[in-house]
Fold:
Amino acid sequence: LKAFERRLTEYIACLQPATGRWRMILIVVSVCTATGAWNWLIDPETQKVSFFTSLWNHPFFTISCITLIGLFFAGIHKRVVAPSIIAARCRTVLAEYNMSCDDTGKLILKPRPHVQG
Structure:
């Protein structure tokens, strides 16, 4: 059990730096998209020209929106929560053995079920 716990905590800790970077990338691209969308929507020319022309006139919004869509197709939504996905799957398996784990991978031993006989 100690070896399993050590390996699980090591694996989750190893994922944390990459997860933090992916979260930062997602935040930056989301803020850029929101800022570009705001500028796109408040532009009076947007209502007067066609949709594609308005996108062409706002390259910051267009590029950040395409980047955000590309990141989601690449699976960034899974990468930002990878440690919690691993912990949740481990909890599911460990429940059969009357155990659980926290978000860092530390094992939690539950008391044995009391059988009345």
In short: The radius of gyration is 23 Å. The mean pLDDT is 92. Strands lie at 99-101, 107-109. The chain is about 70% helix and 5% strand.
